[in-house]
Amino acid sequence: MADRSWYMVSAGEREGPFADEAFAGLIAAGRVTADTLVWSEGMTDWQRAGDVPGLIPAAAPPPPPQMPPPAPLPGSAQWVAANANTPGAPITADFGVFGLFGWVLLLAIGNLLIVPAPWVATAFYRWMISHLKVPQMPALQFAGRPGDIWWVFILVGLLSYAGLPEALSHAKQHVHLLPILLLPIEAALGWLILRWVVANVASAGQPPPLRFEGGLVGYIGWSLLLYISFITIIGWAWVVTAWMRWIARNVQGAPGPVVFRATGWGILWRTIAFGLGSIFIIPIPWLLHWYARWYISQFAIAARS
Asked: How many C-beta atoms lie closer than 10 Å to residue 294's C-beta?
């Protein structure tokens, strides 16, 4: 390129002449590319700069890909720090105020009448689960049938009357022993219902993938601890929180770990607000809707590490 003058075509206009050094600067700045038409003394016609031998330097090889740093080993300090606050996708509910209130009333009536309890409970779970929204599990459905564990719902209905004759005949007695003695049986029935419900949650028409692996003894133990915690006036809220976390931790088969994010204080003040507001009767449907949606939203599926 020594002692030559260069011309180029830019935006349809001819520019130049440029001395060798100036033209090299245009090439380095990217104004002259391999597709730019150029001409210099000794050339018979305009040519692409890339076709002129030695004019455009060969493209530098691309830099080697940057390899990501190795993932920290599970249990290391780096892994604990990275997963300490893993955000979860919260479970939400889109049911209406009076839809939820109506189903809760129907569920209570079915339990009191005992015989229709299996059909009413199954319909309630089918309605409730179809209104839950889990980002990782679209189109939730409930595959359970009334005949699966019908006897469990019948026993639950019968046990709701346990201790009633004793309470009526001993109106001044503050502690009724029969309901207390039946607590382990009621807990065992609740454990069976929980396992049945979890095992029948399906997503997008696929076979139900979930299962509850919490043990019967553990579930009964949490139930008894909750009953005892009412002695402390407010301690039950923290027991409920720990119990829900135990239940969530034992739900297996989800796209990620199931977690419960509520705190004892959060459960305590909302429950008190719900109870105080219910004294006025009329706000009950709205309070129930507010409390239920918040409680459901405290369950989430965390990202799998």
From this structure: 15
